[in-house]
Amino acid sequence: MERTEAIKKINELVGQDLRLLANKYGITVFKNDKKNKGWAGHVVERCLGLPLNSAQSPNFGSWELKTICLKRRKSGDLCVKETMAITMIDPYNVERTDFEESHLLSKMKKQVIVARIWESVLEETSELYAVTTFDLGDSEVYNQVKEDYNLVRNTIIGKGFSALSGKLGVYVQPRTKGAGHGSTSRAFYARVPFLTKLVFSNFTLKNDEFKTE
Questions:
Q1: CB 86 within 8 A of CB 68
Q2: How far is CA 122 from CA 79, 118, 125, 200, in A?
Q3: How many helices (H) and strands (E) in the chain?
Q4: Distances (CA, A) of 33 to 22, 36, 121, 123, 152
Q5: Number of C-beta neighbours around residue 124 at 10 A
C-alpha cells in the first residue's frame, strides 16, 4: 500500500474509538497488567488490512507509521502529550552527511503520524483524532528542521556526541533514547510544539511552550 492511499484510508478512521477496534481485531492492549505500547499502531495496521509489523516503528516500504497521544487540559482543550522519536542519531553519519542527504530527512519524508486522544492509563477509550505528515513542502518548516539538524551536526563536530542535549533545536531536538537513565544512545525527536503545529493548523509557536504539558 502506498503512502497516499494509507493516509486516505486512515482519514476514514478519524473519530472512531481505537479501543473498540482493538477488541474487534483481537489486538492485545493489556497483558498481565502490562500495556502493549504499540497497540494503537497495530489497530491502524489491521484496519488497513496489513499484517502486524514486529518492528518498533512499522515500516511498509514507502512509508512508516507513527502514533502520538493528545490529552485534555483542564479547560478541555486538546494538546500534544509528549515528544515523538523520529530516528536514531548515528554520529558518524550525521557528521559526514548534509541535511539534504540525511537519514533524518529521509525518515521524515516517509512517516505518517496518527494522533489519538489519550483519556487515561486504563485506555478504556481512545479516539483517532487526526492523521498528518511532516509538512516539508513548507519552507519555514524545512528550513527550521535543517537548521536544527545542522546545529546537532556542528555540535558533534565541535564538541563531540556526548555534548548533545535536549535543549538544542527548535522543532527537532537530540535526546537520549534507550533503557535506563544512563543510556548513551540518542535520537532525533519532534518537539511538542512542532507536533502541535502539524496536528493543529491554527497553532502559533511560542518560546514558552517547548516543555511537555
A1: no
A2: 19, 10, 8, 26
A3: 7, 9
A4: 17, 10, 11, 12, 39
A5: 10
Q: Chunked in runs of 10, what are the mean pLDDT values of the chain (213 residues)?
A: 90 96 94 91 91 53 90 94 96 97 97 96 96 93 98 97 95 83 82 95 44 38
Enumerate domains of the chain plus CATH numbers. Answer: 3-203 (3.40.600.10)
> Buried (b) or exposed (e) across 72-85, using 16+ Cβ within 10 A?
eeeeeebbbbebbe
CA distances from 165 to 36, 109, 110, 143, 149 (A): 29, 24, 26, 21, 13
Tell me which DSSP letter residue 61 carries.
S
Residue 28 cell numbers, joined:
492485545
**Cβ burial 163-183 (10 Å sphere, 16+ → b, else e):** ebeeeebbbbbbbbbeeeeee
The answer to whether residues 41 and 65 touch, using CB atoms and an 8 Å cutoff, is: yes
Q: Which residue has the cell 481505537?
A: 18
Whole-model pTM above 0.85? Answer: yes
Sign of CA dihedral 178, 92, 210, 66: negative
